[in-house]
Structure formats: C-alpha cells, structure tokens
Design a protein that fits this description.
about 220 residues, alpha/beta, Rossmann fold, 2 domains, 6-stranded parallel sheet, two-stranded parallel sheet, 8 strands, about 15% strand
Length: about 220
Amino acid sequence: MDIKVDNNTVVVFDLDDTLYNELDYLKSAYKSIAQLLEPDEWRLLYSKMFSLYRSKINVFEYAANTYNIEVKLLIEMYRNHKPNIQLFDGVLDVLEAIKSKNGKIGIITDGRSKTQRAKIESLGILNYIDKIIISDEIGFEKPCFANFQAIEKSLTGTIYYYISDNLKKDFIAPNSMGWKSVALIDNGKNIHFETHKDMTLQKLPHEFVIDFKDFNII
C-alpha cells in the first residue's frame, strides 16, 4: 500500500496489536509476577499462569489464593511492571520513512496512562511521535470522536491516516471524519481476534494490510 507523505500528512497509529503484539505484554507481566512470587521456581509458575490464561481461567484469582495475596495488588503488578516487548518487523522502517518525508506521527490508544506510556518507552519510539492521545488522559475511549479531534487540533495536516487493528471500535470515528483508515490483519496472536463479528460497512477500514512491509512510503 502506497502512502504519499509530505509536511501536510499525519499518520496516526494504534498501539496494542498494531505496533506490537499485546499478548507479549501479557507474557512479560506474567513473567514479572512469577519472578516476584517464586524467585527460585518462577518458570514453573509462569508456565502455569500462561496455561490458565489460555484455558480462560482467572489467573489473578489462582495466584491470589495460592500465595495469599490480594487480587488488587496482582493487578497493580501487572499494570505497573516494566514491559519487555518488541516492535513488529518493519515498524521502525515505516516511522523513519514518514519522518524523512517531513510527515507527522501520532498515537491514539485506549488504556491507562502509566501502562501505555511504559509500553511506548519500552518500544523505543518516543522520539518519533509528535502527539500521543491516551484514553485515560483525555477521558474518552474509541470510538469517541474527541480522541481524533485532539490529534487534528495538535497536528495540522490536509490528510490523516489511522492504522489500527480492532474492527469493533477503531475505524468508526476516523471514517466519519474523512481520514484514511487501514487495518493490520491479525497475525494469529491478537487479543481481540473475533473480527468476523464486526465486518459491517460502518466499521470496516478503507484498506487491509498483512504487515508493515506492505507499506510503501513515497
């Protein structure tokens, strides 16, 4: 997919399951918790936790009951750990190409401020981003128009792109506002994987791509 970029182009990305796999954040958090609860045998606990998650069994309740710790504290440990996550292949090349053409880059993501900012920092992309909109900070979640209007207010442009993954809520607002919308196809590890339920005209993006190597910044 060709994206022509100049100083009037604003390319905005979702974060989770768009720039990296959110499942890797979950695994990073489980590992961190397991190492705290079982310093010597953390691999066994980590294996158990991930197996419970895959079996749709409440991991936090299991750990709370087993180690006599409050679920609330476990959730805080999950949200506040330092994540070990990596960008999808090709993301950095796309960001650098956009910047080389004087384009502007934004992020619109739902989630808690501390958690989402820790992810962005861990991914090493903060220096590429001109504006970050996080639902916890602005007070609205997608598909609210306010998140996208905040980008338009901060980053002046004549054409806006939104690249994301969640057909349920991500493309309703940008489609209505005249943005170009692009969906990254689930690579088999997405947290929100039941996209077939949301393939209605209002929710569909303008384009689909398989991965970031499908983008050609010109």
